[in-house]
Design goal:
Strand order of the largest sheet: 1-2-3
Shape: globular
Structural class: alpha+beta
Low-confidence stretches: none
Radius of gyration: 20 Å
Distance between the termini: 29 Å
Oligomer: single chain
Order of helices and strands: HEHHEEHH
């Protein structure tokens, strides 16, 4: 599993003209970033009592043969994977300039709080983390614990889903259940690899 490091280019100069469909521009100004971060945090009801690690997790799905693939991706992202949006939001929320503007508007994010973007693959329950290399050392223990908890939840979720798969043996072990769920994703004969999420 190779990691290709990339950097987001998300900031535009403060005196940049507003972006339009005729004249698009790359990035957001600091004020535009603060507007978007604050709007989202208010919509979540998260404007105080921040945890040391705040994960913004988008979702998406991929499989070999799914005629309804876009239906499993994020509706708010026009039927695409929403992990890149989660990554961008976390990066904006971690910027000192944005936090200063938020503080001026009455929302104080503690210096010890770090936002981390991720994407949950709803077909095989895998999680892709973004910019983990930027995670402060103080946030790494919480991240390690979260990774362990998500691995256990993924294992149990796969076992629960396998109870409804005709292709899975009865009383399948959690480790084998995860392998079965992953194999369904890559099996060209499976046109509904996402089945089994209801009632979990």
């Amino acid at each position: 599993d190779r990691h290709v490091p990339t950097r987001l280019v998300m900031s535009a100069a403060a005196d940049s003209p507003p972006a339009t469909s005729e004249a698009p521009r790359a990035g957001f100004t600091d004020i535009e970033q603060a507007d978007r971060v604050l709007s989202f945090l208010r919509a979540l009801g998260l404007t105080s009592n921040f945890a040391p690690l705040v994960v913004i997790m988008g979702h998406g799905s991929n499989s070999e043969n799914n005629p309804h693939l876009a239906a499993y991706d994020c509706g708010a992202c026009a039927g695409r994977h929403s992990g890149p949006n989660a990554r961008l939001f976390a990066a904006m929320a971690n910027r000192t300039e944005v936090r200063t503007l938020l503080s001026e508007r009455g929302t104080q994010i503690p210096d010890a709080t770090w936002f981390l973007g991720a994407e949950h693959n709803t077909c095989d329950d895998g999680v892709t983390w973004y910019d983990v290399e930027d995670l402060p050392s103080a946030s790494r223990p919480a991240y390690g614990n979260l990774e362990q908890d998500l691995a256990q939840a993924s294992s149990e979720h796969a076992r629960e889903r396998c109870r409804r798969f005709a292709s899975a043996p009865d009383d399948i072990a959690p480790a084998h259940a995860q392998r079965h769920v992953l194999d369904r994703r890559h099996d060209f004969s499976q046109v509904r690899p996402e089945l089994g999420h209801a009632t979990n």
